[in-house]
Amino acid sequence: SAYPLGTPSRMGPGVVPTALGLVTMAIGLILLIPALGRPGLFPRVNLRPALAVAIGMALFALTVTRLGLLPATFLTVVAAACGSTLARPLPTLMLALGTCLGIWLVFSEGLGMAVPLFGGR
What we know:
It is a single chain. The chain is built from 4 helices and no strands. It is mainly α. The model has no long low-confidence stretch (mean pLDDT 91). It is flat and about 50 Å long.
């Protein structure tokens, strides 16, 4: 759904995401333009981390409405961690649980948002 931008005197909910997107795009262009003129080889892409992050994002998108925010986040962190050859089970588990705890503290306790943490809808 599209969030309205509103007017300068009464800004709508779409102003901040739009502004952040434009700033991010501008920073990307500022970094890209000088880099195009530099000599050198294009860096080799390591597929394992790229695929792990892509799978993590897909897992989140496919599970957040069915399982809720915390299980989807947990699965995303574990999937993304599998992209590293240095990842170990216990630290990965601790990272996933810590991320879930942080999400619960910020969104549910801190902001009081009615986010479905378990069980989705």
